[in-house]
Specification:
This protein is α+β, with helices and mostly antiparallel strands. It contains four helices and nine strands; from the N terminus they run βββααββββααββ. The strands form three sheets. Strands 6-7-9-8 form a four-stranded mixed β-sheet. The chain has a three-stranded antiparallel β-sheet with strand order 1-2-3. Strands 4-5 form a two-stranded antiparallel sheet. The protein is globular and about 45 Å long.
Amino acid sequence: IAGGVATIVGGGGLELVTVGGASPIAVPAVIAGGAVAAGGAGMVGHGIDRWMNEAHEWPRVPRGHDRGDLRDNSGNWVKRDPDGPIPDYAQKEKEGLDALEKELGMNIIRDKVKAHTPGERQDGRIFDSLIELDDGTYVGVEIKSGGAMKTYENSLGTQKHFDDLIKEKHQVATAMLNGKAIQITDVIVRQVP
């Protein structure tokens, strides 16, 4: 067992168990085995959750509702009126990604990932999609609609600051994609009407 010891002592059905630096204790083998199995199942479940592409700890909230940072779980700005209609960001994003994919002649990975880089002003940045380059690094893709591009360009916003760290300061952002650590070395931001 990683990080501990489990040994069957004699034939009496006792198991000597230590975890980390704790003193060994004798417990019935069936109980210890159940605890080890439950702990293993918990670790597998936790690992799967951590390997999700967005790899962040935001609480799950309904689409269009504030998760605590004025955005919903898709990374979209939420309306101030929670009872107001939810704009179709997904359709605008799809249109922008389709156009970019056609323009570049490259496949776009349509998974959102949360990236981190040294010097960021917030706890990571969620990119709408990715493009894998020949050298195995990635380009983070952001699609803006409505007035979002103007806000992005004319403010000292955290997304623009993050993107400038990559584009201008040549910092590398890291993220998890399908359980694998990746490096994001460039950013494309496009606006759709």
